[in-house]
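Dock adenosine-5'-triphosphate; give full complex structure.
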Amino acid sequence: MTAFLELEGVEARYGPVQALHGISLQVPEGEIVAVLGANGAGKTTTLRAVSGTVRHSGRITFAGKPLRGGPEAVARAGIAHVPEGRGTFTELTVTENLRLGAYVRRERNLGPDIERVSQWFPWIPDRADQAAGTLSGGEQQMLAVARALMARPRLLMLDEPSLGLAPMVVREIFRIVRELNQQEGLTVLVVEQDARIALQSASSAYVLEVGRVAVSGPSLELTENESVRRSYLGY
Ligand code: ATP
């Protein structure tokens, strides 16, 4: 299968700190791909390089074309990024957050889209006018995903959706992501420290260590890889 998103030799730095030392990875269309690794390995920076929020060198192509420009150009190309910490606007209502998710589409009548994303998150209509900051952590993470879906992305990038959430909530979020992938064919690139849940959902994964890909392959293979098991799965 040809890659939908492809990174080749991507390097990025924050001032004197080189965060990525030549990352190459491929995300095939219609699949879920995970990026795993310890704190500081470069997972977040990899997503930032794709979304144009950190300067990088190397090649990034999306749907057969070089991906250039800042966050707005990347969003217009069809990539939605749910950042670490979710990026919800806590003072705004649930509906206002959802509407912001669609800003690149220049569509005024967003009712049908809000209905569409509410099918995935049935609690949304009841909370439409509630300030996002008053939702539970799990609901805020779900709202962040729902807001990203409002852009009708072709690729959804999720940065550590499990952060600070109870295991049951994490399982529910990954279940919804898998269903979006299976039922709508949504391609997903997910960064996760919880290797176990990520490998259960993704078809393939990349393990980063200090800004480099240390090991990659089909999820099943990685769950059987002894060093991955010991370092990231804890058995
Ligand atoms: P985490 O799970 O902790 O977010 P990560 O794998 O996502 O880790 P990155 O956040 O991409 O890792 O960080 C990669 C490297 O870049 C680390 O050494 C980190 O300290 C450094 N770094 C990240 N953001 C900045 C920044 N804004 N300024 C300076 N250095 C940074």
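Observed: The two ends are 33 Å apart (CA to CA).
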